[in-house]
Every structure is written in structure tokens, then in C-alpha cells.
């Protein structure tokens, strides 16, 4: 379906497919609205003028048009660079970071974490954060949580560590990619279910707290509560993760993982990682290594 649209200035634009990711028109708001109107007209044509058309074909055409209203989040997702530990794990024959986890993080981000409400401590790792487009900020946060998972759990989704508490208090476990606790279910509304998990082994991947989606979404909620709701710094001694306590020994582990952020951040760091590498390419390299010849 080809449409010729004319904007108020008299300039015409030809559309090869409304909603198509590869369309050759400007991606401004006015043109998207014009395309949406054209698609509605096309829907009326299908309904009133050509009722004999095959139903499946008609539905497919409408589905193509409906995609123009607002770009899908999937189209806005950029490739995320790997952290040093991601590269090291592949070199040692381990399992790398899953690129699907990047998407989980990006979709979980509240609008406030993509705005000027983010505390200025973010500039330490991403000097151009406030100047970046929304998709660039999403990519940064995906990298940030990858680095946090590297420092906290070595990128192992089934990591479960028991911590002894002083004064005879019951011991606690930190679990999953971001080393979280079941108590976070009540504190932050995380999707953990102790009653369902209590009969499972400590590192059973079926546990709700160990499932990457639940764990990462919870981590985003915790950080948003810290820096947006309570207006605390990104790096603070009162923060949830010890790896984000400035000047502490575990912070150095986290800082090491933050040396290869997205190029858009404008950080000058001495990273030995190939700038063309992404979490996806690292995973593909690992898969090729595992595939028998």
C-alpha cells in the first residue's frame, strides 16, 4: 500500500507502508498523525468498499497500519555494550549476560529515571546523561544494572548467599542477579513468593526470586525508590547495595564494571573491550564456542 501525503507546507511524502519500520518518511509527530489518518481511511475502505476481500489479508493490513500511532518500545531498544566480567566469563567458558535481560530492565524503567530527576551522581558514569535521548538513557541503565549484577552476583542468576547476622538474629539470604531478599516483596512490591519457594533448593531456578525478570524488575523498583522517591544520591552509604556505597571496598568491584558504558555517555575510560561488541554479540560468541565442530 502506497500513500501520498501532503503536509500544511505543501511538501508531499510518499509512504510505502504505514507503521513500517523501514518507511522513508520523516519521523516527526505531524507526519505520524497524517499516516494514522490515512490508515483509518484505509480501514473504512476495507470495511465498506471491498467487503469481499479475504479476512486474513484485511486484518494483516490493518495491523500494519495500527503500528504507526506510537513506535513500539522494541524499536527504541538499542544494543547494550558488555561489561568486563561479561567478556571474561566467555573467555573462561562461562555463561554470559543474556541480552533479553537488557530488554527487561529497559521496559521496567519509570519515566522519572529517564528525566532530570536522576541525581547528578549519574554523571560520574555517564557525563552526557542529561543530554541524551530517551533510548540512550535506557541503554545506559541496562548497562548499569548489568554492571551491578556483575559486582553483586558475577552475572549468575541462581546465586544465593547466606549472610550471618549479629546478636543472634536469624541469617538472611541475598539471591539472584541483584542479590535481593524476600522481604523486598513487601518493601517494594516485588514479585517474590516465599510460600511457593520455601520447599525448593536454594539455587533452584524455579524460585520466584531467582527468575531474572522478577529479580531485575525488583532492582529497578529499589533504585527508583532510592533516587526518585527519597531523592537520595545514586551512590550513598544508606543505599540498598553495598556495591553502591562510595569509598567502600565492594564499590571498587562495581566501578570496574562501569568502564565500558554506551558511547553516547561520553565517558573517557581505558576500556580494552571492542567498541563494536554488544551483549548480543558476546552471547553469540559464547554459543559458537559451545557448538561442537
SSE map:
Layout: E1 3-6, E2 12-15, H1 29-49, H2 55-66, H3 73-76, H4 84-91, H5 99-108, H6 134-153, E3 160-163, E4 172-175, H7 184-188, H8 194-197, H9 212-229, H10 249-257, H11 279-290
Antiparallel strand pairs: 1-2, 3-4
Helix pairs in contact: 1-2, 4-11, 5-6, 5-9, 6-10
How would you portray this structure in words?
The chain is mostly helical and about 290 residues long. It has two domains: about 5-70, no CATH class; about 75-290, no CATH class. Helices cover about 40% and strands about 5% of the residues. It has eleven helices and four strands; from the N terminus they run E-E-H-H-H-H-H-H-E-E-H-H-H-H-H. The longest helix is centred in the first third of the chain and has 21 residues, at about 30-50. It is globular, with a radius of gyration of 23 Å. The chain starts with a strand and ends with a helix. Mean pLDDT is about 80; it is low at about 1-30 and about 50-75.
List keywords for this structure.
mainly alpha; two-stranded antiparallel ribbon; single chain; 293 residues; 4 strands; 2 domains
Amino acid at each position: 500500500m502506497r500513500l501520498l501525503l501532503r503536509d500544511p507546507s505543501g511538501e508531499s511524502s510518499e509512504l510505502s507502508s504505514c507503521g513500517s519500520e523501514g518507511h522513508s518518511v520523516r519521523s516527526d509527530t505531524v507526519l505520524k498523525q497524517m499516516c494514522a489518518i490515512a490508515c483509518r481511511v484505509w480501514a473504512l475502505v476495507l470495511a465498506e468498499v471491498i467487503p469481499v476481500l479475504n479476512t486474513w489479508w484485511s486484518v494483516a493490513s490493518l495491523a500494519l497500519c495500527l503500528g504507526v500511532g506510537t513506535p513500539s518500545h522494541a524499536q527504541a531498544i538499542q544494543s547494550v555494550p558488555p561489561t568486563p566480567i561479561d567478556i571474561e566469563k566467555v573467555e573462561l567458558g562461562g555463561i554470559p549476560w543474556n541480552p533479553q535481560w537488557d530488554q527487561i530492565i529497559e521496559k521496567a524503567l519509570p519515566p522519572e529515571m529517564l528525566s532530570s530527576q536522576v541525581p547528578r551522581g549519574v554523571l560520574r558514569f555517564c557525563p552526557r546523561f542529561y543530554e541524551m535521548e530517551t533510548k540512550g538513557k535506557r541503554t545506559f541503565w541496562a548497562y548499569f544494572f548489568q554492571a551491578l549484577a556483575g559486582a553483586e552476583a558475577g552475572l549468575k542468576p541462581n546465586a544465593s548467599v547466606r549472610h550471618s547476622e549479629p546478636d543472634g538474629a536469624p541469617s538472611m539470604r541475598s539471591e539472584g542477579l541483584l542479590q535481593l531478599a524476600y522481604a523486598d516483596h513487601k518493601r517494594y512490591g516485588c514479585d517474590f513468593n516465599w510460600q511457593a519457594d520455601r520447599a525448593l533448593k536454594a539455587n533452584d531456578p524455579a524460585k520466584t526470586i531467582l527468575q531474572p525478570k522478577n529479580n531485575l524488575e525488583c532492582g529497578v523498583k529499589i533504585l527508583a525508590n532510592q533516587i526518585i522517591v527519597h531523592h537520595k544520591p545514586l551512590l550513598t552509604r544508606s543505599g540498598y547495595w553495598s556495591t553502591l556505597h562510595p569509598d567502600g571496598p565492594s564499590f571498587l568491584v562495581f566501578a570496574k564494571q562501569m568502564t565500558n558504558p554506551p558511547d553516547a555517555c561520553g565517558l573517557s575510560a581505558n576500556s580494552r573491550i571492542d567498541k563494536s561488541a554488544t551483549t548480543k554479540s558476546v552471547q553469540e560468541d559464547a554459543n559458537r564456542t559451545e557448538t561442537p565442530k
